[in-house]
Specification:
CATH class: Alpha Beta
Strand order of the largest sheet: 1-3-4-2-5-6-7
Shape: globular
CATH topology: Rossmann fold
Strand content: 15-25%
Number of strands: 7
Number of domains: 1
Structural class: alpha/beta
Radius of gyration: 16 Å
Number of helices: 6
Largest sheet: 7 strands, mixed
CATH superfamily: P-loop containing nucleotide triphosphate hydrolases
Length: 209
Amino acid sequence: MSEEFTAEQIESARKIFSGPCDFMLGVADLVQLPEPDKPEIAFAGRSNVGKSSLLNALTHRKDLARTSNTPGRTQQLNFFNLGNHLYIVDMPGYGYAKVSKSTRKEWDALIFSYLRGRPNLRCVFILIDSRHGLKESDTHLMEMLDKAAVPYRIILTKADKGKGLDALTENIQTVLKKHPAAYPQIQATSAHKKEGLEDLRAGIIQICS
């Protein structure tokens, strides 16, 4: 995030993310979606990008979103209620190689229908592994978000393990200029080192205010 947050904003966000965060339901069919009665943000990323680890670190938990070495483990939209302030949605991982084309097509249809029809969805955070950069599947999701007119931001994960972070950030920012729904600034994070989390929490609360 390019925003500079005050100590008060950071502390307020920390308290919210340290409070209750309850799993609500897993959605495999859009008729199951909860009422759009709170602001909503969603996290998306390639399988094994570190999405579960980041969600756990953001909420000061160890098992809010279970981590797994099996790509494609999250196969539905998992909804969490963050202290009645907002909904957090853990979207299905993508970029996996071990599922059928029909399964990928089904997941694509679910995701696009969700994006297009969710009026309270404030932002999608696309997680990119700092070691690998943008992949074709990431660009595919970005194009879906552009088409659905849903704002999105790029979050770099595993920043403590990546090399050439400044060059990677600059390259991605160049790509983002071609995507109308993309936020131009990029946030680097490390769930392991707890880096970038304070600003990300404060940014989320600001988006949902």
